[in-house]
Amino acid sequence: EASRNICRSPIAEAVFRKMATDAGVVDKWVIDSGATTDWNTGSSPDARGLACLRTHGIETKHRARQVTKEDFMSFDYILCMDESNLSDLKKKANSVKNSKAKIELLGSYDPEKQLIIKDPYYGHEEDFENVYEQCVRCCKVFLENNS
């Protein structure tokens, strides 16, 4: 299953941006999200994801984009949601000469050890809520580890 950059990653991006803002360190980060495919380029995030974020007081203006070769050279970390994303991104990184990005599962930071953040696209509102909660736990630890 390919990543579309309309469900999980915009939620993670918005959650991390809010945490970094609340911690007063947002200016130390360049925060973005991208897809491993170009299916939804330019699209807004899934309406259910936006509704979920809004219930937690978070807005996002994200538009779907594809991960580029430049991303591997300019970002320190590329965090992904599942094994399929991980292998796609590692393959892409191998074709980039000066890749410096550390590619990891966002779930590897989950204190509850839920390694995979499942795509809620074919699910219901509660699946988006689960993604949100996982992102909150993981982003909190990631931010603490990198402050």
UniProtKB/TrEMBL annotation:
It is found in: Cytoplasm. Belongs to the low molecular weight phosphotyrosine protein phosphatase family. Its EC number is 3.1.3.2, 3.1.3.48. The active site is at residues 8, 119. One of its GO terms (molecular function) is non-membrane spanning protein tyrosine phosphatase activity. Pfam families: LMWPc. Keywords: Cytoplasm, Hydrolase, Protein phosphatase. It is an enzyme of class 3 (hydrolase). CDD domains: LMWPTP (cd16343). It catalyses: O-phospho-L-tyrosyl-[protein] + H2O = L-tyrosyl-[protein] + phosphate; a phosphate monoester + H2O = an alcohol + phosphate. Gene3D superfamilies: 3.40.50.2300. Residues 3-145 form the Phosphotyrosine protein phosphatase I domain. Acts on tyrosine phosphorylated proteins, low-MW aryl phosphates and natural and synthetic acyl phosphates. It comes from Oncorhynchus tshawytscha (Chinook salmon). This is Low molecular weight phosphotyrosine protein phosphatase. InterPro entries: LMW_PTPase, Ptyr_pPase, Ptyr_pPase_sf, Tyr_Pase_low_mol_wt_mml, Tyr_phospatase_low_mol_wt. The keyword Cytoplasm applies. GO terms for cellular component: cytoplasm. It comes from the Eukaryota.
